[in-house]
Amino acid sequence: MEVNIRKKVGQAIDKAKSFDFWAWLDERAKLSELPLVGTPDYMFKLGYWTGGMTAAAFFWQVISGLLLLMYYEPGNAYSSTEYIVNNVAFGKILLASHLYGAYAMIFLAFVHLFRNYFVGAYKKPRELQWVLGVIMGAAVLGTAFFGYSLVGDTLSVDGADVAKGLLQGAPLGSLLLNIFFGPGGETAQFTRVLAWHITLAALVALLFALHLGLAEQNGVMPSPKLFNYKSPAELDRKEAPKWWPNNFLYTAAILFWVWGFILIIPSILLMLPQGSIPILLSPLPGPSPTSAAAASIPPYPLWFFLNVYKIVDFQLPLFQGGSGPFIAVTVGGIIPLLYLLLLPFLDRSDKLHPLDRMVHTVIIIWLITVWLIIYAIWGALTPGLPIPPIRVAEVTLIPTAIILAGMAFVYATWKGPKPGNMKQPTLREIAVKRAYATLVLAFLVAVEVIITAALWKVLPDGSFEPMIGVLVGAGLVVFGEIIALYRYIAYPPKPGRSK
Ligand code: HEM
């Protein structure tokens, strides 16, 4: 009898040990049959997942945006926003994380775009993916602008007024004004702006579906090194590893990491004393436009519009007169965007190394450093201050000369592209890394338990709201890391496989 029980327990343990949860789930949901392409081992690095990170931020925006929609009233824009901040449970974190989710999404979209430039991912066969991506980026900037204009605080009203002023100078200005900001009156304006905010977010979702569909068709851009730095660089679909569950697990890890940071950063800012955070980074709305405090706040746009906002201040002859600001926005905003959009058709060579595409590489480096960074910092430091042409020339031409000289030097000393294979880990390296990952995983599980216990303690007290945001965010980041480590331990790389 005793022997029998022992045998049965032994069998049950063996069965539990050999149970494969992912295979069990797959048999029921047929997830491995989804038309998604897997990635080789060397691609499990953040650099290959910048698009996934941007998408994760977008999903956060949709969820938090729909929750905000339950409380937001276009007829009482500012007071309903105040209500969310002061009366809705976790409303502060909800609104602040929607704002910082937008910041994260836009920052990650820029990183994604420029990374794709440097690896040549706009070349055949990915031209359409690139074009869709740039259009999507413009739609995201538009969504963020309309979202910001919904709040009804002094910054948001100033931002909308600046945009209205610009439109007035555009061809068909009054028609465009009516389309984007309604026929007049506050409620009509906020209702129209809300409609645009959601319509553009839906457009982003549609473009994202197409963009992802093409990415699946063409596979992730492999390392150009493996293709002699020549396009077309495509994974061999027949040889491509399975998507399920390796890629699924890494995607989940990315999602939790991004969501965690979107919660942690504004929650920490919410804990700092009011007034210690520069207005540009404030996680909460500013004062009402009719308050006395509003008078001392200069009109600042969202940080990712600061560069174009500064260009409007340039006192160049072309930018003067009634339609001057509109021309400035066209030159400073629309032309760079058009350049990015048309890049695959302007650079038709098959070269994938950035130094083999010098003209465009110099333009892209100029756009990153001068157009995006220097002009934006300038805009933050001197909001609305007119800039004489001589200062424009100084601030523009000095860094331009440095970039040209630096790139000329790099090019002169460059010995040409070095094709090769990806370095594959040895069996021993994999074993050591797995052992190390197992230790860290055990430690992180303990950390996760502590975070959950702390959360349990502070959760009933609403006054700890930012602390709850930090704890939930940290819990998500740690959970993402646990998933990533588990993925490595359960599905380690195969030694000696490079494509
Ligand atoms: C279905 C998707 C979305 C919905 C339903 C939605 C809804 C909303 C609502 C109702 C507000 C007003 C909050 C208030 O003032 O009380 C808002 C603000 C905002 N939204 Fe969205 N949103 C969505 C997606 C996005 C996306 C994709 C972005 C940009 C990447 C974005 C960026 C913003 C920004 C920057 C604000 C201002 C937040 C602040 O200043 O505190 N939203 N959104």
What does this structure look like?
With 499 residues, the chain is mostly helical. It folds into three domains: 35-243, Cytochrome Bc1 Complex, Chain C (Up-down Bundle), CATH 1.20.810; 267-276 and 426-499; 305-422, no CATH class. The protein contains 16 helices and no strands. The chain has helices at residues 2-17, 21-29, 50-69, 77-86, 91-119, 127-148, 154-168, 173-181, 186-218, 246-271, 306-312, 324-346, 358-381, 389-413, 427-458, 465-490. Helix 6 (127-148) runs antiparallel to helix 9, helix 10 runs antiparallel to helix 16 and helix 11 (306-312) packs across helix 13 (358-381). The longest helix has 33 residues, at 186-218. The protein is globular. The mean pLDDT is 94. Protoporphyrin IX containing FE binds at residues 58, 61-62, 65-66, 68-69, 72, 81, 84, 95, 98-99, 102, 105, 140, 143-144, 147-148, 150-151, 197-198, 201, 204, 285. One of its GO terms (cellular component) is membrane. InterPro entries: Cyt_b/b6_C_sf, Cyt_b/b6_N, Cytb/b6-like_sf, Di-haem_cyt_TM.
